[in-house]
Amino acid sequence: MIPWAFRAGSSVRIPIGLELYSVRDALQKDPEATVRAVADMGYECVEFYGPYYDWTEPQAKQIRKLLDDLGIRCNSTHNDEEYFSAEKIQHARNLNLILGSKYLVMASADLGNGPDRWRALADSLNAAAEQLDASGLKVGYHNHEPEFTASSGTRPIEVLAKNTKSSVMLQLDVGTCIEAGSDPVAWVNANPGRIQCMHCKDWSPELGYKAIFGQGIGKWNAIFDAAEKIGGIEYYLIEQEGSAYTPLETAEKCLAAFRKVRPA
Q1: Is the Cβ–Cβ distance between 190 and 162 less than 8 Å?
Q2: What are phi and psi of 69, to 5 degrees?
Q3: pLDDT tens column, 56-72
Q4: Which of 23, 111, 112, 187 has the fewest CB atoms in 10 Å of its CB?
Q5: Are 32 and 4 in contact (CB under 8 A)?
Q6: Is the pLDDT of residue 255 over 90?
Q7: How far is Cα 17 from Cα 57, in angstroms, rounded to an integer?
Q8: Amino acid 252: pLDDT
């Protein structure tokens, strides 16, 4: 049996975390207090984003100690495209090993619709995956709307999926997939074992991305079912770009809504 089939038939708990871009202003002002507040809400993991790259290794060790003390994990980080360059990947590698991450995720790329550019990006992701493999780290790619927008009948995300190694995670941003007019369930089903993580962001025609989880048009029961039976999901992440509430209040309300759909 394929590995994710074992998970689908078991009682394995899938952690729910927060992409910390959701609380970026608070994180910038006081990283430790913000991570502590997120853990106190009940989140089980976090995903640091771009600015983490500016940390020194002692700073990363301090954050790792905080995570350990709080009993939460950093399973992945979001990285600018340049962090995968020959000049910068080593520092990203070192920080992620300290944090205990498993995945270095590229947080999207602005390449337009030319398939050759996306194939070249796939080659870069494959090369990074080979370079990081000896350290036990894996590579991922996070989509936004452009990756799901077809050009000449082909969506850039399909070019990436076809031309990257199966070990490269396709981190699905559900909200942007929906906003682009694509079906997240169909995408998960088309890529078995490659959706180890997804950003649980909702979207509605009225509120856009300011819809709190569950207020949009995402068919979450079907999405979770596909992720857990087919996608190979290892952890979920809430991501929120703003709402009528403060970012920390929004994160708390999203988690409460998530738990109504998928109890602990």
Answers
A1: no
A2: -65, -35
A3: 999 999 999 999 999 99
A4: 112
A5: no
A6: yes
A7: 23
A8: 98
H-helix segments, the chain: 3-8, 24-29, 31-41, 57-70, 89-99, 115-133, 156-163, 174-179, 184-190, 220-226, 247-261
Collapse the DSSP code of 74 into the 3-class scheme (helix H, G, I; strand E, B; otherwise coil) and give the result: strand
CB neighbourhood size of 195 (10 A): 25
Cα–Cα dist 29/109, whole Å = 27
Question: What are the φ/ψ torsions at residue 55 (nearest 5 degrees)?
Answer: -70, 150
42 Rama sector, left if φ>0, alpha if ψ -120 to 50, beta otherwise: left
Q: Look at residue 11 in the predicted model and tell me its pLDDT.
A: 53
How far, rounded to the nearest angstrom, does the alpha carbon of residue 158 sit from its chain's CA centroid? 18
Q: Measuring CA to CA, how many Å separate 246 from each of 110, 155, 199, 249?
A: 29, 35, 20, 5
Residue 182 — φ and ψ, nearest 5°?
-100, 165
Q: Model pTM greater than 0.85?
A: yes
**Chain centroid, CA 222 distance in Å:** 19
∠ CA 137-19-125, nearest 5°, is 35
Sketch the domain layout of the chain as residue ranges.
3-261
Q: Does residue 145 contact residue 173 with C-beta atoms inside 8 Å?
A: no
| Amino acid in the structure at residue 73 | R
Let me know if domain 3-261 sits in CATH 3.20.20.150: yes
One-letter amino acid at 53 equals Y
Q: Are strands 169-173 and 197-200 parallel, antiparallel or unpaired?
A: parallel
